[in-house]
Amino acid sequence: MYRFWILIIALSGVISCSNKGSDPAGDAPSNLTLQITEKEAGSGTYIFEAKADNALSYEINFGNNQKEVSKTGKVEYTYPIAGKYTVTATARSANGITISKTEELEFSRPEKLVWADEFNVPGGLDSKKWTHEIGNGENGWGNAEKQYYTDRSANSYISDGTLKIKLIKENYEGFGYTSARIVTRGKFDFTYGRVEIRAKVPVGKGTWPAGWLLGSNYQTKIWPACGEIDILEHVGKQLNTIHGTLHYPEHHGENATTKTTELATATTNFHVYSVDWNKDEIIFKVDGKAYHTFKSSPQYPFHHDFFIILNMAMGGYFGGDVDPSINEAIYEIDYVRVYQ
Fold first, then answer.
1. d(Cα 318, Cα 208) in Å, to the nearest integer?
2. In what helix (H) or strand (E) does residue 58 lie, and over which residues does it extend?
3. Helices (H), the chain
């Protein structure tokens, strides 16, 4: 009997020691801090350091759908795109209790010219940058357009420092007009940036010059799911009216998200048509003056690679009725530049 009581006392002591400090409230993380330091001004590389009492691990969400887990709470990350981000640090205890803290981060990076064609070399297009698309597409490129696109020098050529896309009234491959449509697809595809097109558009009812971006995933995400950004559109039936338009699911074709601006010298002078495109917004400008701002978000198809298209159509749903007296028209482009 004496030995039995000693054993019970001993076991009781072990159980008491094992439960020491098991209060759940005492295991919760507390006093979470988040320090953010830019490694080098303008680099976009930041060091994130989270600290908390009773924390076993940390998760840093960088505010752009990217995150990293760390046992020390210290991580380094480089943002690919300048902008505003909400950074969230989450501390987790051994028993799974978490606390979080957020900080706002904003940085700007000096813009760099990442791609351009200045059209300074006379002759044909640079095949390392552009590809001609040939034909009339399906149902006139989906718009009942009347032209047949060719890669002939008669329809696209460089002279006197500008690219000329020339519409010609002629019988060709069963169509009454020829023109050109050139793309950077597979040669330059990009996500976000500022695109500038310095151009002069032609006069003529039915003409439809354009400079635009199309989602590079258009073969798997059928238009409008791939997204379309029309930097410049001008139709001869609306002389000197410039259209800046976005096409995406539920807002495409006649129901697209669009705005216009009047430009009295669109057909006589060169102007810079541009779009500033980032994860938060798409801003359309003429000569640096904004006339259309679209607030973007992850639900819209404007967060993947796009490519550049330059073309001039004739007629179609948007181009409208054609003036039969037009024998030719020239859409002239001084340069295309992309900054990031």
1. 8
2. strand 57-61
3. 2-18, 24-27, 316-319
Identify the CA nearest to 289 among candidates 259, 314, 268. Answer: 259
Q: How high is the pLDDT of residue 22?
A: 45
Q: How far apart are CA 211 and CA 231, in angstroms?
A: 6
List the catalytic residues.
228, 233
Q: Tell me what the mean pLDDT of segment 266-277 comes to.
A: 98
What is the residue type of 16? Answer: S
The parent domain of residue 61 ranges over: 29-107
Q: What pLDDT sits at residue 18?
A: 37
Residues 142 and 247 in one domain: yes
User: Does residue 101 share a domain with residue 235?
Assistant: no
Instruction: Give the chain's domain count.
Output: 2
Separation CA 150–CA 148 (nearest Å)? 7
Q: What is the predicted pLDDT for the residue at 26?
A: 58
Residue 13 in any domain: the answer is no
Q: Tell me, yes or no, whether 133 and 96 share the same domain.
A: no
pTM > 0.90: yes or no: no
pLDDT beyond 80 at 278:
yes
